[in-house]
Task: structure prediction
Amino acid sequence: MTGKKREAGIGYEAIADELRSRIESGELAPGAKVPGEKELMATHGVSRDTAYRALMAIRAEGLTVGRQGAPTRVRTVERIRRRADKRLSAEVWGEGRSMWSVDVVDREPEVRDLHVDRVPAAEAVAKRLGLEVGQPVVRRARRYVLDGKPVMTAVSYIPSDLADGTRIAQDDTGEGGIYGRLKDLGHAPKSLPEEIRCRMPKVAEKAQLELAPGTPVIEIIRCAIEESGRVVEMNEMVLDASSYVLEYIVSA
Result:
């Protein structure tokens, strides 16, 4: 009995696992043709339905792309390497540089759907900023697009007593962004803790980030804390998990 015959009865999850491993190892490189239904049926001795479900499983994870009448191929993705320790350093924003200059060396993301307004602080925002619910904050919402693909949404909240009448409340905050302007005002961030959660996207997030079916998101909530201990900004970010690698370097 051949090895192929011994694999008869294998489930679609196991076939998907094998294909995923071949993609992650580089055996199936970006752009490479993925075995089709007939090939999987012959290799594993399974039904067409099982082969189809395996292919749909890895496509739902954003690992492959394809269209009707064309072969399925490994998705070509140049992931953004997000080094929090470096990008949040005062050496970056304090010198007027964009944090994105650390994440992406050779290109700049496009900011879309920028909206700046003054709103009452919701309970979750008020709690983070140490405010009473309903106190005014300046909200800055935007979406970042890299190489034509949305990769992140971000919403910042800054206490209005700090932001009103400054460039923080304008569309263009200038070099160094929000943190550069807070520094100019004497409220430079001294620590920037981040909380990270992975979850499935909400309906609106799927549309905003143009996510493939089954793609999770990374939610990051960051607070900028000045020397006095006051939280001077809260930032809620939602990242397309298929577009990012999060890197942290911790000194031992």
Remarks:
- The chain has two domains: 3-74, 80-247.
- The domain at 80-247 is CATH 3.40.1410.10 (Chorismate lyase).
- The CA atoms of residues 79 and 243 lie 5 Å apart.
